[in-house]
Design a protein that fits this description.
There is one protein chain. The protein is globular, with a radius of gyration of 27 Å. The protein contains 2 helices and 20 strands. It starts with 9 loop residues before the first strand and ends in a 20-residue tail after the last helix. It has 335 residues and is mainly β.
Length: 335
C-alpha cells in the first residue's frame, strides 16, 4: 500500500567475492526509476519489481506523478548496475492529460523483456506490443489494413515469451461493419505465424475470426482460444494447441458438453514442455447445475447465517464442543 510521504524502493542484492568459510559480502544496488516525475509532491514513490531472469536482470515499474495525481506507470529494466526506462512513451503513447502506461509481461533467460504500452487517440485507447533486448526496442503485432481503426487506433498485446525469444500474442482487427475481433499470432524473430482454428464453426458469417493465446512452451508450441460461432452469434470458446506446425482443437465437445443452443465452452490453462495442453470444458446440464448450486450456500449476510445456525441447534444438527474448563458463575454487579 502506498501512503503520502512514503517512498517504496526496490533493491537488488548480489554476492561479491564469496569464499568458503568467509562471511558473505554483498553488492546492493537501487533498482527502478526515482526522478522528479516518479515522485509526488508529497514525496510518495511507488516502485515495484515484477520479473527476475535467471541471469539476474530485474524488470519492474515506477508510478509517474503530476503533483499528487498518478499519471500511469513506466516500465524499467535493471542491468549491469543501471536502470533504463523501456517501452513506448512518445506522443502516440501519451494522453492529453499526460498519462503514460507501459507494462512488462515477462523476461526470458536471454534478457529479452516483452510488454505493452498503452496508445491514446482522444478518449480511446489501444496497445502496442514490444520486446526489448540489448538497448533495442522492437514493435510487435499487425498494424496494416483492418488492424487500424478509422481514427488510427491500433492495439496488440503480448501473451507469453519463451527462452529463445519467440512471442505469442494477438492484434485487434476492426470490422468494417462495426465491432472488433482479435487475431492471435506467433512472432519468431520477425516472422509472424497466424494462430487459431479456421474451420466453419470458428468463422463468423462475415468471414471474421477471433481468438487469443494463453501459453507458450520452449519448443514454440502454443495453446489458446478461438471463438465458436453460428452466423454472427457467439456460441462459446474452443481450446486449441499448435504443436510442430499443426493446430488441433482440444477439450471435450461432445453431446454432454453442448448446450441446447449449440454453445460449447472450453478453456486452456497451460502447456507442458512436451506439448500437452491442460484445460477445462463445460458440461451440460451438470455444469450449469453446479454453478447455480452455489447460490444455495451463499446467503445474504450475517442475519441469514445466524438463522441457519439457530435452526441447526434446534434440530440437533449442531452442538458445541465441551469447554476445557468451567467458568466461574457470574456474581452480578453491585448497584
Amino acid at each position: 500500500m502506498r501512503s503520502a510521504g512514503v517512498a517504496a524502493t526496490t533493491v537488488i542484492i548480489g554476492l561479491a567475492g564469496v569464499s568458503l568459510g568467509q562471511p558473505a559480502a554483498y553488492d546492493i544496488h537501487r533498482a527502478g526509476l526515482y526522478g522528479p516525475q516518479y515522485t509526488s509532491s508529497t514525496g510518495t514513490r511507488n516502485v515495484t519489481s515484477l520479473h527476475l531472469s535467471v541471469s539476474g536482470l530485474l524488470a519492474g515499474r515506477s508510478e509517474r506523478f503530476t503533483g499528487t495525481t498518478s499519471r500511469g506507470f513506466a516500465a524499467w529494466l535493471f542491468e549491469d548496475g543501471g536502470t533504463a526506462r523501456i517501452g513506448y512513451f512518445d506522443a502516440a503513447h501519451t494522453s492529453s492529460a499526460g498519462d503514460q502506461n507501459s507494462f512488462i509481461l515477462g523476461i526470458n533467460a536471454q534478457g529479452t523483456a516483452a510488454g505493452t504500452s498503452i496508445r491514446y487517440s482522444g478518449t480511446q485507447t489501444g496497445a502496442t506490443a514490444w520486446t526489448f533486448r540489448d538497448g533495442a526496442l522492437t514493435r510487435l503485432g499487425y498494424t496494416d489494413g483492418l488492424y487500424t481503426s478509422p481514427i488510427g487506433l491500433q492495439s496488440s498485446s503480448i501473451g507469453a515469451i519463451n527462452s529463445v525469444g519467440q512471442v505469442s500474442g494477438h492484434s485487434i482487427e476492426y470490422v468494417p461493419t462495426g465491432g472488433t475481433v482479435a487475431s492471435p499470432w506467433l512472432w519468431d524473430h520477425g516472422v509472424y505465424t497466424p494462430l487459431g482454428l479456421t474451420d466453419a464453426a470458428h468463422t463468423r458469417s462475415d468471414g471474421f475470426r477471433s481468438g487469443s493465446t494463453v501459453a507458450l512452451n520452449e519448443a514454440g508450441d502454443v495453446v489458446g482460444l478461438s471463438g465458436h460461432y453460428n452466423g454472427l452469434v457467439s456460441l462459446g470458446t474452443s481450446a486449441w494447441v499448435r504443436r510442430a506446425g499443426v493446430t488441433a482443437r482440444v477439450g471435450l465437445f461432445g453431446v454432454a458438453n453442448t448446450g441446447t443452443d449449440g454453445s460449447q465452452y472450453s478453456g486452456v490453462l497451460g502447456i507442458t514442455a512436451d506439448g500437452r495442453a491442460v484445460g477445462t470444458s463445460d458440461e451440460y446440464p451438470v455444469g450449469r447445475f453446479f454453478r447455480n448450486s452455489k447460490a444455495a450456500v451463499i446467503y445474504e449476510g450475517t442475519r441469514e447465517i445466524h438463522k441457519l445456525m439457530q435452526a441447526d441447534y434446534l434440530l440437533g444438527y449442531r452442538t458445541d464442543r465441551p469447554t476445557r474448563c468451567e467458568l466461574p458463575a457470574y456474581a452480578g454487579s453491585e448497584k
